[in-house]
Sequence to fold (238 residues):
Amino acid sequence: MTRKQTAARVLVVEDERDIAALVSFHLTREGYRVRTAESGREALDALHAERPDLMLLDLMLPGFSGYEVLGEVRRRAETADLPVIVLTARRDEADRVRGLELGADDYITKPFSPRELVLRIAAVLRRVQAPPVSATGRVLQAGPLAVDGDAMRVLVGGREVELTPTEYRLLISLLERRGRVQTRQQLLESAWGIHARIETRTVDMHVQRLRNKLGVGAPMIETVRGFGYRFRAREEEP
Ligand code: CA
Fold:
């Protein structure tokens, strides 16, 4: 973990005190500066007092719900780009999808391990601090994949694979927002262009072809059921 990340401030919004205490304990041990809020109202006040680097938001809050907090955070100009990870119940796919639709950067399902929590937070922070792939002008390594953004070449385990321009753009779209779930619609817009008159299932077909070509690198692209796709975060590399 870098020094920059060690000093990062995390606002934990959770009404269940034992969970909030557990999360605080692990994050503090990792060097994060942690504040907690027990309600949506308290969370918005805390955000106003001092903007954190990331908010961990439980969706199940009494009164002012996590959804409402997230909606308000995205509406306010000063927090519109605040990284937010939502906490959802394990079985509740609808909650997760709704959280992502409202602009959450990632989600963690309960019950979660402290290690998973720490990795996810580090991944989101790293992502917001990292320059986009296309702007770096160097070879980017991701697991067994190496992507040369200048030459538009992709290597898997040192061997070059031939991608179509669409497959290449799709890979870059996923890679540029590494660790972040993207909807099929978002991928359509970034890889095909916003006005593309094609259906979202076309994305599934292309992702499948891309995975076939990537071979051992295929698991780097994960399917997020009911939502879209996600390129594995650096911390999750095999
Ligand atoms: Ca709760």
Summary: The first helix runs from residue 3 to 6. The chain has a mean pLDDT of 85. The CA atoms of residues 173 and 190 lie 6 Å apart.
